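User: Here's a chain of 260 residues. Predict its fold as tokens.
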Amino acid sequence: MLMVIDIGNTRTKWAQVTSDGALTDYGMTPNFTLAQSTLQHRLLSADKVIVANVAGDAIAEVLSGLVPRETSLHFVSASVEACRLVNQYEQSEALGVDRWASAIAAWHKYQQPTVIVNAGTAITIDSLSMDATLGTTGVKSSVVKTGCYLGGTIMPGLYLMHDALVNHTAKLANATTGTIQAFPVNTVDAMQTGCMRAIVGAIVLASQQLEKHGDSSPIIVITGGDAVKIADMLKGHLKKVAIDDHLVLQGLALLQKAYV
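Assistant: Prediction complete.
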């Protein structure tokens, strides 16, 4: 049995992969409780474990200690190309593995110009373009396509933005009860609205830039803990917005074939 694990900045998520590639039996825990979580029990039935880790070496050691010795364990890194997606990052291996796995999953599922928003502790906004694969005859295929990971941005997530305002200004209240308003008339609403508008604006700009790069309007695919909040705000500005849970885990399931 294959298990895929996504160690983010704050939380660790996992799932089992069925023989037909579907994900099942999801689990999640804060990183600081990983050693006490139910993951260790789940790992007892795994033959192979594929991991995306962006939280550093210490948490990787904790996870490694939970995996039985006879189980094949692989920590994934980004590559120049995988699963019909080409990576244009200057140093391919320097691309965050969570961003790469999300891109693999999004390309596999949508196969069209895509802006991927991973809305967690940090927010990454990445762009995929669509290019037809040249066959051996030199004629472009209308069926088999390759995608191109163009690059993307990293910014603070909603909580980090709000926390920065609270902790690095003199008079802004530590309140998280604000609401999004067209014209905020109190400080907590102004903070919440300002943070959300920064994120929405960055996504809209990424969509516009990708549309200029190609010839069609891209789909916006959002994953992560704040996906629903951001998607609700985006729907008034962009036509094609989708929430896709567990995108990193989906990408790891596709990438596992490289680790036989």
